[in-house]
Amino acid sequence: MLNIVLFGPPGAGKGTQTKKIINKYNLVSLATGDLLRTQIAKQTPLGIEAKILMDKGELVPDEMVIGMIKHQIEEHKNEASGFVFDGFPRTTKQAEALDAFLAACGYSINKMVALEVGKELLVSRLIGRGLDSGRPDDQDMKIIEHRIEVYNISTAPVKEFYLKQNKFYSVHGVGEVEEVFNRICEAIEK
Ligand code: ADP
Question: 154 lies in which domain range?
């Protein structure tokens, strides 16, 4: 199995690049943000609880996303030659839970690939995305700023977790989509 964590702040381009990675390497993508938005659309109890936090730019509780991810891995592990995790893990607790669960299945994370993009560009990309997507968390400057802050405080430290395991690869995330994709492929194939 080839299991990749695609890492980076909101607006770094994880979703765009995940689509290209899964096509090239024949993987299954697991994006917690998308999974949560599906729950919101279905108006499940989990979705209703998550929406309140997501609209404010806060993280949803670890147990909630860990449970969802475990369920998805179980569901797809026999058909998949690996996974791309997009937007997960977002806390060290999530990273630990993912490692433990994969190990119990006989798998592991091969690499974390981090997309590096400066704050100004992140903000302008998110504002642009909000115009198309209609996502409430992309339409308010304060919420966008807050998500970047939450990333810096709670999520950025997850890098250390994979650094310690010698699995961390940093990729320059500014440039044409194809250019960034080629850099990611280089990191994956290193
Ligand atoms: P972005 O990368 O632009 O922030 P996502 O779709 O990955 O977009 O996430 C949107 C929101 O969903 C986050 O701000 C957070 O509220 C929630 N979310 C997604 N993934 C996680 C996670 N792994 N842990 C906690 N909350 C999450």
Answer: 2-188
Q: Is the CB of 173 under 6 A from ligand 1?
A: no
Task: Report the CATH number at residue 86.
Answer: 3.40.50.300
Which residue in 57, 131, 59 sits closest to 88, CA to CA?
A: 59
- pLDDT tens track for 34-60: 999 999 999 999 999 999 999 999 999
Q: Domain total for the chain?
A: 1
Residue among 49, 126, 137, 148 to mutate when testing ligand 1 (max atoms within 8 A of CB):
137
Q: Is 9 in the pocket of ligand 1 (CB under 6 A)?
A: no
pLDDT of residue 94: 98
45-56 vs 32-41: helix axis angle to the nearest 10?
120
